[in-house]
C-alpha cells in the first residue's frame, strides 16, 4: 500500500505479507557496499604470495615427502598439510591453472573421476558416514592457494566434531599424515584400475 507523508508517496509494506523466514540468520542490507565490491581490480588488497606454489612443488618430490597418494596422467591426489578433518585430501591438476573453467576436457574428466576414486579410497580405508567436497575459486571465495586449482575431499563421521575447535581453536587428528598417506596410497593403487584411471 502507499501513504502520503508531507506530500511524498511512501510505500509501507505489511509484514504479514512477507514470505516466511527460511533460516534464523538476520540480514543487514547494505547496497552502498557495491561500490566497494565492484571497485577497480588495481585497488583491491592482495596477500603476499608464497615463493613457490605448493601444488607445483609437490609432484617434484617423492610421494612420501610431497604427501601424494596417487599420480594420474593429468591430475594427482595430495594430502592437505593443514587438514579440516582427518583424512582430508585434494585433487589437483598438474597444470598451474586457477579456475575449473581453464581445464581442458581430458583434465576435467580425470579431475572429476579422481574425485570419485578418492571417495572410494576413503570408503575402503576409513569408512566415513559422508563427505564434504568442494572447490573455492579465487581468494575471495576462501582458496588458500588461489592460483592453483584444487578440489577438497573431506571424509566426515557422525560425531567427528567435538568441543576442541570451539574452545581451544584446535582440531584433534587421531592419525599421523604419513600413516594416512600410506594407507590411502595403497588403496588408490588397488582401486584405480577399476575406474580405468592410470597408475603413474
Automatic annotation (TrEMBL):
Q: What InterPro entries would the database entry show? A: AP-4-A_phosphorylase, FHIT, HIT-like, HIT-like_sf
Q: Name one GO molecular function term.
A: nucleotide binding
What positions does UniProt annotate as the active site of this protein?
A: 150 (tele-amp-histidine intermediate)
Matching Pfam families:
HIT
* Keywords on record: Hydrolase, Nucleotide-binding
Which superkingdom, per the lineage? Bacteria
The UniProt record lists the HIT domain at: 54-163
Q: Where is substrate annotated to bind?
A: 80, 142-145, 152
Q: Where is this motif: Histidine triad motif?
A: 148-152
- Protein name per Swiss-Prot or TrEMBL: HIT family hydrolase
Organism encoding this protein: Bifidobacterium moraviense
Give the lineage: Bacteria, Bacillati, Actinomycetota, Actinomycetes, Bifidobacteriales
